[in-house]
Write a structure and sequence with these properties.
With 470 residues, the protein is an alpha/beta fold. Helix content is 44%, strand content 15%. Strand 9, helix 12 and strand 10 form a beta-alpha-beta unit. The protein binds pyridoxal-5'-phosphate. Pyridoxal-5'-phosphate binds next to helix 12.
């Protein structure tokens, strides 16, 4: 499998070459040249496999330059009961007939990002050692990406992590999780602005080709293709866990921000997994709900980005959407580049009526938005009805799932974080603090290590130069 850019300006590259990069050199996102297709017989063969074997069978279709035995060992070492808490890796909790939660948050940082990031840590270490290279990961996080990346990369040889986060905007738990890491290869940078400003700074670094090359800059934020590939696997696992026969349709509902998680669902569907609907759940930052319900994609500025109680979804410019729109437009890079010119000019774009219909009818997308009150109501209602605590992001997913639910079709809601990460909202919703794994009992009391920067690209460059040269 080789990789091309959504903007059409990159000669095909191997998996390892794009794994260590961020944006394609032409500013687009990388996509597989063709999407692998599985037959009914393939699906039946995969259905009974345990997680790591299933993941290997999916991932190998996207990797062209790592020997299969090595890849298999890397995947097996990643998805273990020791790291993810159970042999199932992503256990299903059934709430009601045809209504399921797929638990993706039992990794080291208690959010679904670990599912991809733990694999990336092992892939990076392997490829860097093989090619005798080093990489400096510069990323932006609104909470969960950063900690997942840092826990996956800490102590890994050849890797430094520089993680930007919006100062004061993460939950105390999220902050403590990241800032308490004392590993020498981990650098936390609190930026005096919102998440999107952090993301823009990372983009600016990546758009400076000379700087990127001189300082060996790479990325693990949600545009990284390796993450999407790793995420595709749990759609297969969830599908096989709830489908009574291989071939029947299943709906997935996904709490969404940067569109990375649900983009993997789109890929799984393109590969032939019988997903009927992909439901995009947003919070008050509803730019994606607007797109999927009207066909108008109009990313918003910082002045129109709200701080909400599902903070990992406080995103008003969804980077991975470009991957889906590329497919929607029949992989026409020229057409896509034109639309994204509209975005760079700050006006966004509106789909044609045909493309809008195709998005819903051919690709199966639906969407919803929720508010803080909805989250409180749904956390309480799920707790009272099923005795299950869900976190605020998963509550956004629950609301969307209920709105779009068809009683005859299995619905899988992706649980994207554990409630323990969001104590204040849980307390407000159900009057009690969520349980916390014993190992994280006194997390907030640990000494924290971080630096503060203005939302200024020059300041970030100076920071990196100082530390990478030294
Ligand atoms: C990152 C994150 C999301 C959003 O996922 P995207 O891939 O950015 O759409 C939702 N919930 C939680 C808890 C997250 O950490």
């Amino acid at each position: 499998m080789r990789y091309i850019s959504t903007r059409g300006g990159m000669p095909p590259q191997s998996f390892s070459a794009i794994l260590l990069g961020g944006l394609a050199p032409d500013g687009g996102l990388v996509m597989p040249e063709v999407c692998p297709r599985l037959t009914q017989a393939d699906l039946e063969r995969l259905a009974p496999l345990p997680y790591a074997e299933l993941a290997f069978e999916v991932i190998r279709l996207f990797v062209d330059d790592i020997p299969e035995a090595d890849l298999k060992a890397l995947v097996a070492k990643t998805y273990t009961a020791e790291v993810f808490g159970s042999a199932d890796i992503t256990p299903i909790k059934t709430l009601a007939p045809n209504l399921h939660l797929q638990q993706l948050s039992n990794g080291p940082t208690l959010a679904f990002k670990d599912m991809a990031m733990q694999l990336l840590g092992n892939l990076f270490e392997y490829v860097l050692a093989r090619d005798d290279k080093e990489i400096n990961i510069v990323g932006a996080t609104s909470g969960d990406t950063g900690s997942a990346a840092e826990y996956a990369m800490r102590g890994k040889k050849g890797v430094n992590v520089f993680m930007l986060s919006p100062a004061g905007k993460m939950s105390p738990f999220q902050r403590a999780q990241m800032f308490s890491l004392q590993d020498a290869n981990i650098h936390n940078i609190a930026v005096k602005s919102m998440f999107d400003a952090c993301q823009d700074m990372v983009k600016a670094i990546n758009n400076d080709a000379a700087f990127k090359q001189d300082y060996k800059i790479g990325a693990v934020n949600s545009i990284n293709w390796g993450r999407v590939v790793a995420q595709i696997c749990y759609y297969f696992k969830g599908y096989f866990a709830v489908a009574k026969t291989v071939g029947e349709p299943v709906d997935f509902c996904v709490p969404s921000g940067n569109f990375g998680n649900i983009c993997a669902g789109h890929m799984a569907r393109q590969m032939g997994l019988p997903i009927r609907r992909l439901i995009v759940a947003t919070n008050e930052n509803d730019v994606l709900d607007e797109f999927f319900s009207s066909g108008g994609y109009h990313p918003r500025g910082l002045d129109r980005t709200f701080e909400t109680s599902s903070p990992s979804m406080d995103i008003t410019k969804a980077s991975n959407l470009e991957r889906f729109v590329f497919d929607l437009l029949g992989r026409d890079a020229g057409k896509l580049s034109l639309l994204w010119k509209g975005i760079d000019a700050g006006i966004g774009f509106d789909l044609s009526a045909d493309d809008f219909a195709k998005m819903r009818e051919v690709y199966g997308f639906r969407s919803s938005r929720s508010t803080h009150q909805d989250r409180l109501d749904n956390i309480r209602s799920v707790f009272e009805t099923y005795g299950v605590e869900i976190d605020p992001h998963t509550a956004d997913g629950y609301k969307a799932a209920i709105e779009h639910r068809d009683a005859n079709v299995a619905m899988v809601i992706l649980e994207t974080a554990l409630p323990a990460k969001f104590e204040d909202t849980m307390l407000e919703a159900i009057g009690q603090k969520p349980q916390r794994p014993a190992s994280l009992q006194n997390l907030e009391d640990l000494p924290q290590r971080f630096d503060v920067l203005e939302a200024d690209v020059a300041a970030l460059k100076a920071y990196l130069v100082e530390r990478i040269k030294a």
